[in-house]
Recover the amino acids of this structure.
């Protein structure tokens, strides 16, 4: 698990409210933030290269087996227009004790969420932004990929 924290340091009291003594200097914080961004970018790059290699192998196997092409989406844009791995949108939900006692109840619950086709930018339909589960539940509606 990863915990993301945003911290605002506010000076209270004292003679001069414009100065605040901290146990760290601005440059050290800036270096650490840059290091974290760089590590995240490196991990995303490694995953992209892995996905690219997987796709090359997949396409080669399809062509070797004379299998008709299938629609496979490795990356999807979320509601913030950020490109994410499609599998990051999917995880099992545990609904014990919340009134969803069987697969039939779960199917009924999902059927109550409205289907909203996203026309894409300019009505072209090319872009299909996926919503995070939290955004999907908050809107109580989504496209096919959200359901």
């Amino acid at each position: 698990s990863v915990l993301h924290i945003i911290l605002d340091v506010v000076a209270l009291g004292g003679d001069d409210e414009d100065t605040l003594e901290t146990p760290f200097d601005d440059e050290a914080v800036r270096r650490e933030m840059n290091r974290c961004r760089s590590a995240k970018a490196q991990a995303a790059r490694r995953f992209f290269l892995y996905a690219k290699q997987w796709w090359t192998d997949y396409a080669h196997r399809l062509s070797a087996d004379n299998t008709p092409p299938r629609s496979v989406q490795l990356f999807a844009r979320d509601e913030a227009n950020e490109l994410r791995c499609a599998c990051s949108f999917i995880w099992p939900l545990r609904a014990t004790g919340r009134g969803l006692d069987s697969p039939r109840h779960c199917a009924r619950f999902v059927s109550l969420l409205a289907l909203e086709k996203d026309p894409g930018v300019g009505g072209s339909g090319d872009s299909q932004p996926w919503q995070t589960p939290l955004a999907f539940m908050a809107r109580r509606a989504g496209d096919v990929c959200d359901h």
The chain has a mean pLDDT of 78. The helical segments are 26-64, 103-111, 133-139. Strands lie at 75-77, 83-85, 114-115, 141-142. Residues 51 and 74 are 8 Å apart (CA to CA).
